[in-house]
Amino acid sequence: MTHQARWPTLLAAIVMAVALILALVQAGSTATMLHDDATPAPATPDPDGTPLATPGANEVVIDMESFTFNPQTVTILVDTTIVWTNLDPVAHTADASDDPRTFDSGNIAPGERYRHTFDTRGTFPYVCNYHGNMRGTIVVD
Ligand SMILES: [Cu+2]
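Above are the sequence and the copper (II) ion SMILES. Below is the predicted complex in structure-token form.
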């Protein structure tokens, strides 16, 4: 009868050994998972999406010459820039005649320029503040 009593002990030893092996395997896989932490990707710098304006593009030049605006009437598209260029030996201005003024160049000294970009459609008569008969018109179509 003594040999029968050994079976439960042997069985218990085998179950404990298997349980120990399973526990070790599980611990190992857990350790592997802990090493699998995601490294955050380096932040890519956000490039400035603003396109660079090409100098001279979308610009129309009006000469201030011999006390006249030349050409006197200019028709342009929206977002066109007018560049008034003073070729006279005296100062001029280009002041819109509307109120409040759409544009007002202030003093444009001889050889100087004044730029204004028209972003709305309309007809804009303007005048030189120093010479009342010096007039022009910008038509924004
Ligand atoms: Cu003038």
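The first helix runs from residue 2 to 34.
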